[in-house]
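Hello,

Following up on my earlier ticket. Below are the two sequence lines again, exactly as submitted.
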Amino acid sequence: MSDTTIKVALIGNPNTGKTSLFNHLTGLNQKVGNYPGITVDKKTGTTKLSKTQKAIILDLPGTYSLNASSADEKIAIDILDNPENVNYPNVAVIVTDVEQLKRNLLIFTQVKDLEIPTILVINMADQMKSKGISIDIPQLEADLKTKIVVSSSKQKTGIDSLKEAILNYDTLSTERCIPAEKIKQNTITDSTLLTSLSALELKKVQHHEAIVRYQLINEALKKSYKVDRSKASDTQAKLDRIFTHKFFGYLIFALLLLLIFQVIFEWSSVPMDFIDESFASLAEWTKEVLPTGMFTDLLADGIITGLGGVVIFIPQIAFLFLFIAILEESGYMSRVVFLMDKVMRRFGMSGKSVVPLISGAACAIPAIMATRNIESWKERLITILVTPFITCSARLPVYAILISLIIPNDRVFWFFNWQGITLMLLYLIGFAIALLSAYILHKTLKIKSKSYFVVELPNYKVPLFKNVIYTVVEKTKTFVFEAGKIILAISIILWVLASVGVNDTFKNAETIVAESIEKNGFNEIQKVALENKISRYKESLVAEFTTNEKSYTQLQLLDSIASKTLEFRNALIEDEVAGMRLENSVLGVIGKGIEPVIQPLGYDWKIGIALVSSFAAREVFIGTLATIYSVGSESDDEEGNTIKAKMESEVYASSGKKVFTFATGISLLLFYAFAMQCMSTLAIVKRETKSWKWPMIQLGAMTVIAYVAGLIAYQFLK
Amino acid sequence: MTVADLQKGEKAIILDFPVDSIPLKLIEMGCLPGNEIALVQTTLFNGPLFLTINDSNIAIRRSTAAQIQIEKVI
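Thanks for your patience. The regenerated structure is below:
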C-alpha cells in the first residue's frame, strides 16, 4: 500500500446499514482480523476512489457513542483521538439511518468535535418517501458544519458521491459542532477523567454531555428535518403487533425454530451425502495411486477422512448461519430477545442469551463470541458456560453413526422413526441440561453485577442478500479452518503414536501372526468373514457371466476365484498384523492404560483412544476410529469396509462379544452429549472470560457429568 | 408516575431519573428529560417493556422503567 492511500474510518450506530455500505464499497476486498490483545473484530477493506487513488476502509464496530463504556467504544476512541495510531483516519465517515437521524447524530457530534475531517452519510434514503421524511440538506450541512451524502444501501445510490467526498477529504471542515468550552469535562478527549472521577461522577459528566449534544441536534433538526406523519405508513407497528404479541409472538417463534431445524436437516442431506461420498472416493483413490504403507494410511484414513468429517458439517452450519443472519438482518431477532428476556432470567440469563444458544446448535465458538452484547457479567458468564451443552454440528456425525449402529430404523406412527426420535431426544437433553446448569449456576454463583437490559428494536427490513451471504461465508470459513487445523494435528499425532512400537512384538508382528495362522488357522470370526467375501465375489462373477458382459471359460473362473481368495486371506493376515502392532504401539499402551477408567462405561481401549483424542474436537472420534480400525488393512471397495461396518463387526478378542452394544452406544451418546470436547471452545472461553479459571471449571464439570451419565446408562442397560 | 405505570399505547414526557441507576446506553439513545416516551407492547409475567423513546424502539426491563419519572400526555 502506498503512502498516498486515504485512510477512512466508518463509524455509526448499529442497524444503520453501515455494514452494507462497507460491503458495497469494498466488495470482496475485505478481511477480518483482531485488534491486538482484545476480542473486537477488526474489519478492513480497500476500495478504488478513482483510477489512481485507493482508499483503505476501517469498519469500526457499531456503537451508540464514544463514551468508552465498552471494548468496542474504547477501540474507536483509541483510534480517533490519537493521530499517532496507525489506524488514525484521514477522514471519518459517520453512517446514519434517515429514520433515526436524531439519535444517530450523537456519535457524529462526538467524532466531529475531535476535529477530524468528517462526512455524514444519511443512509436508507429509500425509506424517506414512505415515511414522509424530507430534509433540507444544505441547511443541515451548514448547521453541522459538514458534508452530507444521502445514500441507500438497498438501491446502491450515493456510493459514487461518497467516494468523491472521500477523494476530496482535504476540503472538509474540521471545525467543531460544539465549542470546546461548552463541555468542560470531556471524557473522550481527556482520558484521565475516566480514572480520576468516580463512576457516578463520570456518568453525571457523560449525562450532561449527552444533554448538551442533544440540544444542538434538536435545534439543527428542527430547521431542516420534517416528517409528514400523515404520509407515514404504519406497517412496522402492525408487524410488531403480531410478532411481539403476548401469546402469538411466542407461538410464531416456536414454529419458526421448528421450521428452521426441519429445513436445515432436509436441505443439508443432499450436499452432505455428496460430500461424504466424495471424500470416501478421494480416500480410496489416494490409496490406489500411492504405494501402500503407513504414510498413505495417514493421508487416506487420518487426514482425508478427518477433513471429510469437518467438511461434511459445512451445509448444516452454513444453513443455520444463513437463517440466523436473516433473522438478525430483518430485525426479528431483537424481538425474540425482547420476548424471551423474562423466561431466560429465571435461568440467570438474559433475553440476549437466545442468540448464542441458537447459534450453539451450529458451533459454540461463534455462539460464545455472540454473548458480548449481554450487559450483565453474571448473565453473560452463565450463557458462556452452558452454551457448549447445546448440540453443535460437531456432535452430529458421532450421533449419526452411533444411532445407526444401535437404534433400529423402524417406523413408529406415520412419519417418525426411532432413529429420528433418538436424535431429537439428544437435542432436547442438551438443551435441558443447559437450562438446568444455568439455573444451578444462577443460584450458586456469587457475582454481583448490575443487571441492565437495553435492546434496540430496529425497524423490520428485507435482509440484503449480500450482507447475509458475507456473514455466512465468514462464519463458516472460520469454523472450517479452526476445526481443520486441529483435525490435521490430531491425525498426525495419532499416526506417529500408532507407528512407534514399545516392544519386540511390535517389530515381529508379521512373523508372530504368520506362525500362529500356520499352526492354528484362522479363528471362527475370520473364517466367516472370508467365506462371505468369497461367495460375494463369486456371485458378482456369475452375474457378469450370465449377462454376457464378459465371457469366461470355467477354468478362468476358478483361477480368478483362487487368486482372489489368496488376496482376501492376505488382507486378513495384514489386519491381524496391524491389530497386533497397534496393541503394542505407544497409542495402544495409552489406550490400555486408560481402559480401567472407561471399562465401567462399556468402552474398550480403542474407543478410549478415540474418546481421549476427541477432547481436542468431537468430530475427531470417527477419524480416529477409522485410523485405528484400518491401520495397515487393505481397505478395498467392498461395502464391508465402511467405518460403520467395521464398528459393527468389532468384537472383544477375549470373548468374541460385540463391542458396540445398545448399552455401550447409549453410554457413548450421553458422554458426547455432555462432555466438553472441544479445544477451540475452551480457548474462546478463556479469551472471553480472560482467565483459565472458567474454561477449566467448564471442562471439569462437563466431563464429570458426561462420565456419570455414561456410567449410569451403561450399568442400567447392560 | 413512572414508565412502569404506563398503559399500552399511552404517551408521556420524561421528567427525571436517577443518573446513577439508568444505563448510559439508554441516555445515549435519547432517554433524556423533555423527550417523549410511549409504551408499545408488554410481555407475559411482567417481562420487559417495548417503548418508543425519541422515535427509537427500545426494550428495557420493568425495574429500570420504574425509575424513570414521567408526566402523561393527554
